[in-house]
Write a sequence for this structure.
């Protein structure tokens, strides 16, 4: 329940300021009255009045405007638009509040760490059950059998599957090169082609002549695969006829922009708005185990990872129109070394 | 690697409770011609303003030349190096071209100005770019096209990094547009970026490298050059194929309007016949004769030679009351043709007052008009203050006013100028309403816009002469040649 306005200190300060202001104006009026009556002290009156205006301007410029800016950041934080904003306030309310925010940041990070550790533990347990080496060896075995039986198709899909699992399971926290990530996507496409056949087409475009340089830039591992998976399963799978997935890579001096486009069914307007809102307001809904809505969780996870790693100015935005297709735009910092730019 | 000149990231701008820009993303590369096709006009003005100046935003970030210049936390109100070229020229009319380009700019500090040097400098640039404008000429004597070229040069000289070209096809003829496009391409190759705002994707296809589609202050789709196809745009546009072409009523063999070898200062030996109920488009490729046609029909000028017959009567004959039989709908009519102090119904009856002066005293006539037009116009017909009415309804007022007056012929000056897609669609419906009432519609235009969706015939005018005539079944030939 919200408190009454009078219980907020900011309102009390404002009231006090208004009372002082009214008192000063009254004093100036009295001074003006005395000056006019006596016909003297006009210079003093002008001086006091100028001083008053200067103080008013000073308060507006250096107190009111910064106050407005800070309270706007808090308002946007409360609505979920920004998280980083309150850590980087230009004008904190007081040293105590600044310290309190720092403490909250630590709490959030600890919580994050704990939940990551928990997920890590679950993942390790799962990994132990699967035992990657056991999985790779088994798949290699199947592949060998398939080759000796002359079943080349089975051999190829088994190889693709083994490579895909090896890439997906190992060192998820790493930054990988665009080349590795695209290699994984091509592998994933090979696997999906066994199911979709000619219905599914994948193209990769580079918006620059310097393709070799682009391939060396780095991005978080498994950034593209969940998005391509969404494009195939939510866009193209339910569509009549063939579908196309296009990955376009552009670079600017500071950014790596990857757009994954499909000509599938597209997303309804309301759903798109909801999804883009979630991508903008840092939500941890995707990590809640009891979350009902599963749509776009892969994309939200990728977005959260990008924002946590590189900051709020990076992330994902979706353009989509029903029966036309979807464009997922991923904006990342331009990183050449493995550990670069991580916050 | 391409340098980004502008980057708007998730920009939301709310003014007076209205969301003008909604989660808008837009990035423009150096030397790129980015198109902006607005499905409706919502947010267009706010976007242009935001590009020019770092005004407060509710949320988002704006980067100019890779530097953060505006964000939701702090807006400095500083200006960006952006120039806007639009119909409302920013040039000083009473100064010369070279004064406007070289002197009227920020940072110019010389006290003694040598006009000769400035003119020579301008001549050099003009020669390089093959521009036929005299630097010592007053801006007030220039045509819209020439002003546009001067503004473009001024923007380049003032080191603008982004030039916003806004709806220029509304006021520049088709031939001149090509020249402007050539200049835009030339400067884009030199690294200047352009944001080309227009209402028609066909226009944007010809010049842009990429196109953003905007509706309600939100970018719906970004099209790359490979996607410049009509079918890519169709899902975002309204269906304009609602033509009702049954309205041609060839009652008079001489036609309702007949020009025989008419010449004026700008028109050269023009002959044509327009039938009753027909809709004819005059496309003036050089923007030279439209004013003369209007002045001839208003009897403000007489033809140097030739005859003009309206329904068989000589228009120049003083006994013939031409003004009662002809109506005009001007360009941007809601700005120029309405009386803001009058109620909706009084505005609607305004023309009818010419035929029946008693209408202002007889409320019964007004009541019967309300009864007839109420179902077409809706509740707005009862409005006393028309300044609070939506533009769509004001267009109803303009066109139904003519509908009610029932002239023989109505001349529409650039009816689709500045109108967004919804409004253009609505104007087409309104023109069809006029045609249903057997009113002949003549559309005078310098660009094609959506005129062919209502037209029965297209008259192509070049350098004051009727160059070619296309019937509706031949329109595809014309489109193919465009």
């Amino acid at each position: 329940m919200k408190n009454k306005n009078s219980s907020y200190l900011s309102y009390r300060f404002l009231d006090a300021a208004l009372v002082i202001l009214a008192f000063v104006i009254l004093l100036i009026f009295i001074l003006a009255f005395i000056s006019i009556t006596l016909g003297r002290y006009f210079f003093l009156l002008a001086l006091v009045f100028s001083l008053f205006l200067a103080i008013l301007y000073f308060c507006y410029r250096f107190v009111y405007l910064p106050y407005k800016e800070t309270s706007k950041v808090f308002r946007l934080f409360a609505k979920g638009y920004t998280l980083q904003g309150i850590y980087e306030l230009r004008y904190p309310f007081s040293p105590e509040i600044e310290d309190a925010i720092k403490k909250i940041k630590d709490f959030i990070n600890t919580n994050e760490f704990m939940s990551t550790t928990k997920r890590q533990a679950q993942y390790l347990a799962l990994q132990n059950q699967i035992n990657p080496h056991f999985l790779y060896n088994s798949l290699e075995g199947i592949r060998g059998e398939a080759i000796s039986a002359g079943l080349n198709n089975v051999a190829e899909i088994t190889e693709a599957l083994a490579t895909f699992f090896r890439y997906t399971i190992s060192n998820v926290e790493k930054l990988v090169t665009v080349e590795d990530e695209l290699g994984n996507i091509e592998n994933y496409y090979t696997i999906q082609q066994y199911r979709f056949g000619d219905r599914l087409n994948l193209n990769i475009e580079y918006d620059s002549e310097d393709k070799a340089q682009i391939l060396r830039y780095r991005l978080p591992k498994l950034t593209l695969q969940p998005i391509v998976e969404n494009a195939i399963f939510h866009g193209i799978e339910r569509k009549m006829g063939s579908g196309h997935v296009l990955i376009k890579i552009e670079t600017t001096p500071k950014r790596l922009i990857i757009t994954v486009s499909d000509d599938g069914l597209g997303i309804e307007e309301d759903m798109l708005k909801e999804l883009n809102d979630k991508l903008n307001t840092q939500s941890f809904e995707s990590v809640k185990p009891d979350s009902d809505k599963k749509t776009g969780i892969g994309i939200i996870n990728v977005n959260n990872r990008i924002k946590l790693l590189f900051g709020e100015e990076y992330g994902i935005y979706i353009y989509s129109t029903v029966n036309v297709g979807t464009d997922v735009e991923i904006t990342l910092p331009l990183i050449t070394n493995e550990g670069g730019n991580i916050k | 690697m391409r340098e980004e000149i502008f980057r708007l990231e998730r920009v939301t701008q709310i003014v007076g409770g209205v969301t003008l820009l909604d989660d808008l993303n837009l990035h423009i590369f150096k030397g790129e011609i980015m198109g902006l096709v607005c499905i409706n006009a919502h947010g267009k003005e706010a976007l242009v303003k935001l590009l020019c100046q770092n005004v407060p935003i509710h949320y988002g970030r704006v980067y100019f030349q890779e530097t953060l210049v505006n964000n939701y936390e702090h807006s400095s109100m500083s200006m960006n190096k952006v120039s806007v070229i639009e119909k409302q020229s920013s040039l000083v009319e009473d100064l010369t071209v070279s004064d406007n380009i070289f002197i009227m700019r920020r940072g110019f500090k010389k006290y003694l100005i040598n006009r000769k040097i400035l003119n020579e400098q301008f001549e050099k640039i003009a020669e390089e770019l093959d521009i036929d404008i005299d630097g010592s000429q007053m801006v007030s004597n220039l045509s819209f096209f020439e002003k546009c070229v001067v503004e473009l040069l001024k923007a380049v000289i003032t080191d603008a990094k982004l030039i916003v070209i806004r709806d220029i096809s509304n006021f520049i003829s088709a031939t001149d547009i090509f020249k402007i496009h050539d200049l835009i391409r030339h400067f884009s190759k030199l690294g200047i970026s352009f944001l080309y705002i227009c209402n028609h994707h066909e226009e944007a296809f010809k010049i842009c490298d990429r196109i953003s589609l905007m509706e309600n202050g939100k970018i719906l789709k970004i099209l790359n050059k490979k996607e410049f196809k009509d079918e890519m745009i169709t899902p975002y546009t309204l269906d304009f194929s609602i033509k009702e072409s049954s309205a041609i009523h060839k009652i008079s063999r001489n036609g309702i309007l007949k020009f025989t070898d008419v010449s004026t200062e700008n028109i050269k030996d023009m002959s044509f016949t327009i039938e009753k109920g027909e809709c004819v488009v005059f496309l003036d490729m050089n923007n030279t004769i439209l004013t003369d046609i209007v002045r001839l029909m208003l009897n403000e000028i007489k033809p140097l030679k030739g005859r003009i017959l309206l329904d068989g009567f000589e228009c120049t004959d003083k006994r013939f009351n031409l003004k009662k039989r002809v109506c005009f709908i001007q360009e941007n009519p809601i700005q120029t043709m309405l009386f803001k102090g009058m109620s909706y119904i009084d505005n609607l009856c305004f023309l009818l007052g010419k035929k029946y002066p008693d209408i202002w005293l007889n409320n019964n006539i007004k009541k019967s008009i309300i009864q007839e037009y109420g179902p077409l116009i809706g509740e707005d017909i009862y409005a006393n203050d028309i300044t609070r009415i939506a533009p769509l309804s004001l267009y109803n007022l303009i066109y139904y006013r003519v509908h009610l007056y029932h002239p023989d012929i109505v001349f529409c000056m650039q009816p689709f100028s500045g109108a967004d897609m919804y409004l253009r669609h609505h104007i087409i419906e309104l023109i069809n309403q006029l045609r249903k009432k057997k009113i002949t519609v003549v559309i005078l235009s310098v660009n094609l816009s959506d005129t062919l969706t209502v037209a029965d015939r297209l008259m192509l005018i070049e350098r004051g002469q009727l160059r070619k005539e296309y019937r509706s079944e031949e329109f595809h030939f014309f489109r193919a040649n465009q």
Q: What stands out?
A: The mean pLDDT of chain A is 81. Chain A is about 60% helix and 15% strand. The beta strands of chain A are 175-177, 200-206, 218-220, 243-251, 255-262, 315-321, 325-333.
